[in-house]
Automatic annotation (TrEMBL):
It comes from Suncus murinus. This is unspecific monooxygenase. Belongs to the cytochrome P450 family. It is found in: Endoplasmic reticulum membrane; Microsome membrane. The gene is CYP1A2. One of its GO terms (cellular component) is endoplasmic reticulum membrane. Signal peptide: none annotated. GO terms for biological process: hormone biosynthetic process; progesterone metabolic process.
């Protein structure tokens, strides 16, 4: 990530929801809206079609 603000925001969201006790699961995606938006944006920018 070239924007450290985005990286910090995602880390804060992960720490709040997951708490550093375990790795994120697919079932966590509804509790991680910023992270999911980031992943979808990455897919959008990397699409070759």
């Amino acid at each position: 990530v070239t924007n450290p603000g985005i990286q910090k925001k995602i880390q804060k969201e992960l720490d709040t929801v997951i708490g550093g006790v375990r790795q994120p699961r697919l079932s966590d995606r509804f509790q991680l809206p910023y992270m999911e938006a980031f992943i979808l944006e990455m897919f959008r920018h990397s699409s070759f079609v």
